[in-house]
Every structure is written in C-alpha cells, then in structure tokens.
Target: Glycosyltransferase
Amino acid sequence: MTLLIISPDYASHLFPLATLGTEWQRAGERVVVASGPATADIVAAFGFERVNLQLGRGSNPGTIRAEQQPEGEDDALRGFFDATRRGMVETLRFQAEARSSDLLYNPVEIARSVQLLVEQVKPDRVIVDHLAFSARLGLITAGVPHADVVLGHPSALPVAGEVYGYPPAWPAVFEPAASDLAELRALCERVRDSFTAQWNAALAQLDPAATPSADAFQETGDVLLLNYPEELHDPARTELLPPHRFLGSAVRDEAPDVEVEAWLAGSDLPIVYVSFGSFLAVRGDVLARVAEALRQLGSEHDGSGVRVAIAVGPTDPAELGPIPQSWLVRGFLPQVTLLRSAAAAVSHAGNNSVTEAMTAGVPLVLLPFSTDQFAGAAALHDAGVGVALDPNAASVAEIRVAIERMLTLAPEPRARLDALGTSLRGSVLLGGAGPRRAFEALEALPVAR
Model:
C-alpha cells in the first residue's frame, strides 16, 4: 500500500503531516511526500520518498528569513512582521488582504500537477494539508478520495456564523475597539466572497459539471482530520463541525542532539523552554522581554532558580541581553525533546507548540501574534493550563508572574493537564495517538487510485 502526503514547503506544516505517515511506515508500507525543495531534508530524515511539488511562492525549512524568499514574497513577509508590531487587528487585516495569493496560488496549474502526480505515484491513500487549496481542487475534481487535515486550531475551518480570518475567540487581554472588529469582519467577508469566486472559477475550468461552492473556506475532503485535542475544543462548536475525527496531536520523534542531551543531564533545576516558532522568532523585542523575566526569575524562584532553553530563530542572541552560562540558546532547538523535560514553556500559541506541549503535559505562557493563535491561546487560558498575554503590551513583570504561575500550576489544572497528556500520548511510542487515529480514519476510504 502507498500513502501520499501533500504538504506546502513549510517545516511547520510538514512535521505533523509527516508524523502521521509514520503509522504507515511502521506497518511496512510505502510513504511518498509531495512538497517543495526547502523541506527535502525533513522528508529524508523521516525516511520517506519525495516528489517535487511547489504549492506556493514561499518556503520555510525551519527558520524563515525574508531575504531568502522569492522577490515579492520577501516584502510580503516583512509587511507581515511589521503588522504584528501594530497589534491583533492590524495583523489579521494584513493577512486577510494577502489571502488569495497565499492560499490559492495558480490553482488550475497546481491542481493539474497534483492530478498528474497521483497518476504517477498511484497511491492507495492520500493526506493533504487543508490550507493547500489548489492541491485539494485537483483531488476533488479528479474524484480522488483523500483525508483533509486541519493542522491549526479547528477555527481554521469556519462553521456556521463564522468567517475565515476572524477569530471566533481571543484572550480577554486583547481589547480591540468594536469599530475595528466590525471593519475586520467586513473585510474578511469580502475576502471570503472573492476567494470563493476564484475557487469556483478554477473549479469550473477543471470540472465544468462541478457544483459551485458557497464558501470555499468551508470545503473539506472525504475525511476531515483535526490535529488538535478534542478536550480543549468547545463542545458547542464541535457539534457544528462536519463529520470529523480529532487526532489530538502528531508529535514527531527527533534525532538525538548531543549538545542538548548533555545540557539536559547537567542539572535537576526546572526547565523553561521558549520558542516563537519558525516565523515569529523574528520578534526579538518580545523574546528580549521574556529573557529579562527569566533572568529575574532564575535567581529567585523557590530559592534555586530555573534553567532556560531559547530557540531564537533569525534573531541575534545579543538582542536578548546578558545570557547566563546555564542557558541553552540556539537558532533552532529540538522542541519535542526539550518539552519532554520542561516544567513550563513560553510560546506564540502556534498549533504545533500547543499540541506538543499538551502531549508532554507542559503548561504554557502564550503570546499570540496572528491567525488561529488567538483562538488557541484563549482555549488554553480558559482551561487553566495556559496564561495569555499581549506580546506587544506585556511587561517584563507580567511575563515573569505568568511564568511563575505556570511553574506552580494549581492542583486542579495540573490534574487536568496530566490527564490530557496521557490521552494524547496514547499507547504508541512515537507520534502519540494521532498517527494511529489517522490510520484508522483512512481505512474506511476507497482506494485513491
């Protein structure tokens, strides 16, 4: 049997998608990944076959830099980073205005490339990123059964009454003006209508008999998989979802890192792990405030201090200020490995960070910047297993208090988090329960080819 995984050329997307494929790999089946060249090393590290498929202009091998993007994409990335400095509504507005070029890139050409690829690979099962809209058009119009994976917070798939790009929830610490929210929602509705018109135009070209969509952002595949813990999702919203399965998490196994293993073995002090993911680590100003909070905490918490691991991405470590000798600071760190030993973590509330931390039973201080990060942060804050702060407004003192609170989590949320971690880890050693759940969900599909 052959599994085909279709992924954008972004590490943050490929890591969970490839992890789902490990269940087929363990069963001795063939796994083929279709993605761009930037993530080729990740595919090789998983031991999968790779075929080239470029789903968009941008790419991200693990740490993104604007100067390494194609012309036009570099300026768009800088514009996004600038928008995050202006706040929640400004960032969401910027992303909404860029939506068509981001998510529906060369739809007919890419759709036909996907159809040709399916003919060549002859897969029995197909998994595709929900946000790979052009690829999904190819599968839909060719009648190829496939699993559609929502990798972000489930709000990435809007339900009745929601519009894509407008968060259904956000932490109370964000207090946008009602007029700004009204303008944002109106913009998201205009973008939805424009995006759907583009989807329908491509759909008609690929399959003139196809039924047009009323909202392309709500279109799903034959099997809908949500890479998110059901325990953290609002049950009322769950009832509005189309037929689906929550995977919980897809936590990759990482290659041994000699430096990290030696650092972990060097002390029994509690560890705080810090990462803003492969995109938002560019916000060195926020990382610097987190670092200062941890420096203060290090000499006073429980009279013994903490040890700190920070993934700085493209940010110069010098921006963090004085770095204590006991800290581990690198551009990229093995996140899953460090979370398994961490007592608390500081995150941008990206879905990989959230699901991996919950699987490890690690409470989070959340500093969301964009898209579904707001809904993800709100869910953890409401569950008591995270504290949400505004990354542009939170003071060093507020960040420090939040970290202290997560390090000394109250018994009730601690028990809830431990139970969630046990559920997400399941009985499978690698990848947690998610890959097995995906495997079982796809078993019901007819053969793709």
User: Anything to note?
Assistant: The first strand starts at residue 2 and ends at 6. Residues 64-72, 300-304 have pLDDT under 50 and may be disordered. The longest helix spans residues 178-206. The chain has two domains: 2-251+430-442, 258-425.
